[in-house]
Every structure is written in structure tokens, then in C-alpha cells.
Design brief:
Length: 111
């Protein structure tokens, strides 16, 4: 149960939960666009993504100076259920709708 508790601890932060939901809905996304989506500074989003990466929740890919994040491949049924819930259960939440609206309008400042 320690692994499961650690996963929920990572996702207990509202910013990290919102990031997980956006990544579940949108798929791989650049840090700059995630920052726009959450209306937060890039350094704050990068910090939270670093925590999520250390916990195995997300994976990162560098392309030039840009870093793209996506949810990690599920390792068990719990992670699979959570990712499905992020896509399905939260899609209609007002905060998620606002985040998605900003994210879809965003364009990377790097190019």
C-alpha cells in the first residue's frame, strides 16, 4: 500500500492533479503550454512536473530547448483506472474546462 499512498500523495496537490487531468485529456504537451493552461509561471509548473516525474506519474521528452510531458504508461490497474477517470470524470469540471480553454489557445513562446 505504500506505493499507492505515495501516488495519491503526489496527486493530492491541486496543481499536480490539474496537470495530470490536462495530460490525460490532451496527451503529450509542452511545459510552456501547460503553464498557459493553468495560468501559472513556467517555473512553478516545471517544479510540479519534476515531482510527478520522480514519482513515475509523467515522462519527459526533450526536443531542442522544449520539454514535453505525458502521463507515464500505466503499471497497474489502479493507474489505468485513474487515467481513465482523469479523462472521463473531470472533463466537465469547470476548472478543467477553463484550463483546457486556455491551453488550446496557448502557443509556445519558444517558437
Amino acid at each position: 500500500m505504500n506505493k499507492e499512498a505515495a501516488l495519491f500523495k503526489v496527486l493530492a496537490d491541486p496543481t499536480r492533479l490539474r496537470l495530470a487531468i490536462l495530460l490525460a485529456i490532451k496527451g503529450e504537451t509542452c511545459v510552456c503550454m501547460l503553464a498557459e493552461g493553468l495560468d501559472a509561471p513556467e517555473y512553478k509548473i516545471s517544479h510540479h512536473l519534476g515531482i510527478m516525474r520522480s514519482a513515475g506519474v509523467v515522462e519527459a521528452r526533450r526536443e531542442g530547448t522544449w520539454i514535453y510531458y505525458k502521463l507515464s504508461k500505466t503499471r497497474n490497474r489502479l493507474e489505468q483506472c485513474l487515467q481513465e477517470c482523469f479523462r472521463d470524470c473531470f472533463a466537465g469540471h469547470s476548472t478543467v474546462k477553463a484550463d483546457m480553454k486556455r491551453l488550446l489557445k496557448a502557443a509556445c513562446k519558444n517558437g
